[in-house]
Specification:
The complex is a heterodimer of chains A (293) and B (318). Chain A has 293 residues and is mostly helical. Chain A has helices spanning 8-39, 46-64, 68-89, 99-121, 147-169, 171-181, 183-188, 193-215, 225-240, 245-265, 273-284; strands at 2-3, 6-7, 137-139, 144-146. Chain A starts with a strand and ends in a 9-residue tail after the last helix. Chain B starts with 12 loop residues before the first helix and ends with a helix. The chains are: A mainly alpha (293), B mainly alpha (318). Chain B: This is Branched-chain amino acid ABC transporter permease.
Chain lengths: 293, 318
């Protein structure tokens, strides 16, 4: 079977890879958007925290024989706690300053985290075995679907929409949205805004770590895995705009798919296609697809 | 991102700069010239960057693209086309300026944090292109670039001759930046940094000023990059990497944002540190750089030169 001269198996598998990458873009840009909404900070350490999630899962399995499912819960909690400490001890001091200082601080933190992991584990990369329950695959007739990859997409989307639901439909989410609009008024109404901020940063960071654990069996666990990804995610954020939660999810998935298609039809451009789209969006709609002008 | 940039009253600037200029002339007799040349390249790079961040308030996280592109263009022109070094440097500078124009037109459509993310993403695109295009030598970089003869006469393979060329390039670049900052154009940039809506309401075409500043900054970063290729006779992939973009931010921040000498002091400090530490601590260099970043942001936002200026200012008031 062929579509446009491309075997459907190839097309299908690249689209699946695109969907997986898109899921990671979605979770990561969602985390960035939530943090930016309340803290007005772009969390440059997001990639490093994603990498931490993957490494904690790998360390847990190889050193302590703690399985994937425990790591999937524990790693985000640990990294989220780490985020809470960062927010309480450092980020908090910057809220009254220019927003760019937050970017610079988290950039420095990313360098520190990455440097430590590189010193400990080298840059060669470690592999993490797919958990037994999710190994193997299904023949769909036109392509082979590895179960783990399907699981990544389902898990990522579930978490994304769970987050959307929490922000749009729950009371906590209402506080969060109100805090994004006007923190002073929300504070005056008796809501503990500093605590809300801490929680938000911790949650955003935990999302990154969750993505990291999901990614561990798909990609190599490598100290640099986050920094290469995060720059693409920045482009995704510029394309989507950070104004809308659903917008972040849709943009992330969409760009992953476009990247997958580019790998089929014009592989040389697959590394830059997201950036090219960013350029076009900036020319046509500078505020981003879902951004407020 | 505002930092006071008052000049000191105790030492006249003319005296200070003349003194520093003379120090630069005799420095290669006391310090290893190659090290000094590297230092001047990064100092010019950081000064060019500071023109944008310190005076126009625009944080570009993609300045490595200009340094690197100019390096590759200069290297290719000198090695494969066979032009003389000064034409190579000129070609690199122009290429960086053109790239700066493209980056500028795109990035200026957004402000603040988005501006930083856009420049970073565009620079990453340049990185991938450099990595994939055959002419640049991919991961190996561009090797075996001859230093050649300046104007076809002066043999640059002599380290001292090369040093004085680099020193001249740095001095010219520094002078351009100094003049830009102290011109009416520079004053308008500061006005935009301090209060953009007011600058607009006063009738200034803010985007045009930002774009011009961006192109000047990119060209001078390119000037530094092209010269660097001649010194080391290679253009490497790391020059286009985002690590280099981060490094120039760090140099400027450490030396003093929005001060004239700060970026040069900051880059001298960082380059010296890297030189001293490289053999001793290995991959911990990144950790140390990151820690300096964190320290600067949390506790030392005026930077070295900024702190000194503040001290002198306080002493002057008494």
């Amino acid at each position: 079977m062929e579509i446009l001269g491309v075997p459907t198996a190839l097309l299908g598998s690249q689209l699946l890879v695109g969907l997986i990458n898109g899921s990671f873009y979605a979770i990561l840009s969602l985390g960035l958007a939530i943090i930016f909404g309340l803290l007005n900070i772009i969390n440059f350490a997001h990639g490093a925290q994603y990498m931490m999630g993957a490494f904690i899962a790998w360390l847990a399995l190889t050193r302590f024989e703690i399985n994937y499912w425990v790591a999937l819960i524990a790693a985000p909690l640990l990294v989220g706690l780490f985020g809470v400490i960062l927010e309480r001890t450092m980020l908090r001091k910057l809220y009254k300053l220019d927003h760019l200082y937050g970017l610079l601080l988290t950039f420095g933190l990313a360098l520190i985290i990455e440097g430590i992991f590189r010193d400990q584990f080298g840059i060669s990369g470690e592999s993490y075995e797919v958990p037994e329950a999710l190994s193997g695959g299904i023949h769909l007739g036109f392509m082979f679907l590895p179960i783990y990859r399907a699981w990544v997409v389902v898990a990522a989307l579930t978490v994304c929409f769970g987050t959307w639901f929490m922000i749009e439909k729950t009371k906590l989410g209402a506080y969060l949205r109100a805090g994004t609009e006007n923190p002073q008024i929300v504070q005056a109404l008796g809501i503990n805004v500093p605590l809300l901020i801490t929680f938000t940063y911790g949650y955003g960071v935990a999302l990154a770590a969750f993505a990291g654990v999901l990614a561990a069996p798909v990609f190599q666990v490598n100290p640099l895995m986050g920094s290469n990804l995060i720059i693409v995610v920045f482009a995704v954020v510029v394309i989507g705009g950070m104004g809308s939660i659903l917008g972040s999810i849709v943009t992330g998935i969409g760009l992953g798919l476009v990247e997958g298609l580019t790998k089929v039809f014009y592989p040389e451009a697959s590394a830059v296609v997201v950036f090219v789209i960013m350029v076009i969006v900036l020319l046509v709609r500078p505020a981003g697809l879902f951004g407020k002008a | 991102m505002s930092t006071p940039s008052q000049t000191t009253t105790l030492i006249k600037p003319e005296v200070l700069y003349t003194g520093l200029f003379i120090v630069g002339l005799i420095a290669p007799f006391a310090i290893y010239p190659t090290f000094l040349m590297k230092l001047f390249c990064f100092a010019l790079f950081a000064c060019a960057f500071n023109l944008l961040l310190g005076f126009a308030g625009l944080l570009s996280f993609g300045h490595a693209a200009f340094l690197g592109t100019a390096g590759y263009v200069c290297g290719l022109m000198v090695r494969d086309v066979g032009v003389t070094p000064e034409i190579g440097i000129l070609a690199g500078t122009v290429a960086a300026g053109l790239l700066g124009w493209v980056f500028g037109v795109l990035a200026i459509r957004r402000t603040g944090i988005y501006f930083a993310m856009i420049t970073l993403a565009l620079a990453q695109m340049v990185y991938f292109i450099v990595l994939q295009v055959k002419a640049t030598g991919g991961e190996d970089g561009l090797q075996g670039v001859p230093r050649g003869h300046l104007f076809g006469v002066v043999d640059l393979s002599d380290n001292m001759a090369m040093y004085y060329l680099v020193y001249a390039v740095f001095s010219v670049g520094f002078f351009i930046i100094y003049r830009t900052i102290h011109s009416p154009f520079g004053q308008i940039l500061k006005a935009i940094r301090e209060n953009e809506p007011r600058a607009i309401s006063l009738g200034y075409d803010v985007s045009r000023f930002k774009l011009t500043a961006f192109i000047i900054s990119a060209s001078l970063a390119g000037l530094a990059g092209a010269t660097k290729t001649l010194i080391f006779q290679l253009a490497s992939l790391s020059d286009v990497h985002w690590h280099t973009s981060g490094e120039v931010v760090l140099m400027t921040l450490l030396g003093g944002l929005g001060t004239i000498l700060g970026p040069a002091v900051g880059s001298a400090t960082i380059i010296t540190l890297q030189n001293e530490l490289a053999d001793k601590v290995g991959s911990w260099v990144t950790v140390i750089m990151g820690s300096i970043f964190v320290l600067c942001v949390l506790a030392f936002r005026r930077g070295i030169v900024g702190e000194i200026q503040a001290l002198i200012h306080r002493a002057g008031i008494r």
